[in-house]
Write a structure and sequence with these properties.
The structure is a homodimer.
Chain A lengths: L1 E3 L5 E5 L3 H13 L3 E13 L3 E13 L5 E4 L8 E3 L4 E7 L2 E8 L4 E16 L7 E4 L2 H10 L9 E9 L2 E8 L5 E6 L6 H18 L6 E6 L4 H9 L3 E4 L11
Parallel strand pairs in A: 13-14, 14-15
Antiparallel strand pairs in A: 1-2, 2-9, 3-4, 3-9, 4-5, 5-6, 7-8, 8-9, 11-12, 12-13
The structure holds a DNA duplex (15 and 15 nucleotides).
DNA sequence: CGATGGATATCGCAC
DNA sequence: GTGCGATGTCCATCG
């Protein structure tokens, strides 16, 4: 049974035979629609890695931008996928619907072979995609630039994203004694990796500036793990607790 | 128009009114089905961060394990989402379908308010989820354990995931001179972060073993970036090019 | 629970 | 294109 909406906004087939499913998927891809295929299938992937997935019931989503997703009934992440800019294709192989998605650079191929198809749908969607997100690292940076004393009294920001041989420092500035300060921002509780990152910047600036006094490194985050705290101490780096939003700050 | 499959495997409504949509979604959630709702909607999220998304046409997926996904026509990633173990709910507010997903620890809430509903579907899915994946870091480890000379002649692996105060070393072993070796594995080309990670392990082992000779650190990956290569040299660490699969290896 | 690090991570930006 | 770092990263594993 197939229902076709006016203006190709929606086309759905329940329990289509494989040939009908192939036709609906092919035409929908051609028309730039978003397609979902639900049914029992196997999945093979080959590319940066390779995988096989035995028979099971899944939902396959093909987006008009070339992305493909294979979702099971569990997990936020798809069990298999292709990134955008792939070419989708629907064919019949041995009388069965085969959905493939392929790209080059890197060479990657995804193949979904259906044993049975519960439903095929095609949606003509339009979206402005104007997501507004708050509580990011960018918000934390702005909070500090608006009130540098949140770092410490006398701190003066001089640059953001200042380049060093090791990468860009989130905020570069001077403390009340005129000493250079590198600030690394994290929107959430940090582990050892963030300490390593800050350490690399401070080392690079020490080398680069070859001043008489070492550069101070300050990690700014809501909180820090034990191991990271120990690493900070070992490397003579500092920590200032601060959240992106001004919410209650954790201890440590 | 609504179609109900035998055994509740499939229920689909095209252009349902909001009350019908609410009923279908509610009953499907209750029944443990996977639900998709396609239509024009706005999305509000509040939790670890917060976001708002203006009107647009999207596909909302509610999984029986509590995960929720809001997909636009672009991108591999959902524009909004909730992780598994959330509670889904469908209600009518001012005559409009409102789909909400909520969890605690951390407190997070997602609300999708529909202006219009193109289609609602509920699928009863079962999946064994027996994904077999190759080309992972684990494969790289096994490759080395099978033939330790891939690292160098005389290398003897003694332990995997050996704990240090800085974390677990992928492979711990000895070289032909009986000197301790820490091996860090990466399945793909590495940047500065991997060098920092290996450096932390080597430093920790130097401290921990306080032997007369320093611990050797070897990074194993298909290739390495310039900056990472420089960092390796600075810290006296080594690099061995190797892929998880035995594919052709890149230079440097 | 939190901590830690992998991932076919994806994504965006700068070079 | 590659390099680099952020992400409401997610996720499995381990303590």
């Amino acid at each position: 049974m197939t229902v076709v909406d006016e203006g190709l906004r929606l086309e759905t087939s329940q329990h289509p035979d494989h040939e009908t499913a192939r036709d609906v998927v092919s035409e929908a891809i051609e028309a730039g629609a978003l397609v979902t295929v639900v049914g029992r299938c196997t999945v093979d992937y080959e590319g940066r890695a390779s995988s096989t997935l035995g028979p099971g019931e899944r939902l396959v989503m093909l987006k008009p931008d070339g992305a493909a997703l294979v979702h099971t009934d569990e997990g936020q992440q798809p069990v298999n996928w292709q990134p955008p800019d792939c070419e989708h294709e629907a064919t019949l192989v041995d009388g069965r619907l085969l959905v493939e998605s392929h790209r080059e650079t890197p060479e990657e191929h995804l193949a979904v072979s259906f044993e049975s198809v519960l439903e095929v749908s095609a949606y003509g969607l339009t979206d402005e995609r104007d997501l507004s997100l708050e509580g990011t690292e960018e918000d934390l940076r702005q909070r500090i630039l608006d009130d540098p004393t949140l770092i410490e009294t006398g701190f003066v920001p001089l640059a953001t994203e200042r380049q060093t041989p090791a990468g860009a420092v989130d905020i570069y500035g001077e403390d009340g004694d005129g000493r250079a300060v590198a600030v690394e921002l994290k929107r959430r509780r940090v582990g050892p990796d963030a300490v390593g990152q800050l350490g690399r910047y401070v080392d690079a600036m020490d080398r680069d500036l070859h001043a008489d006094t070492d550069v101070r490194g300050i990690l700014v985050a809501p909180s820090v793990t034990d191991r990271a705290s120990r690493l900070l101490a070992e490397r003579g780096l500092e920590f200032v607790p601060l959240t992106p939003t001004g919410a209650a700050e954790c201890d440590t």
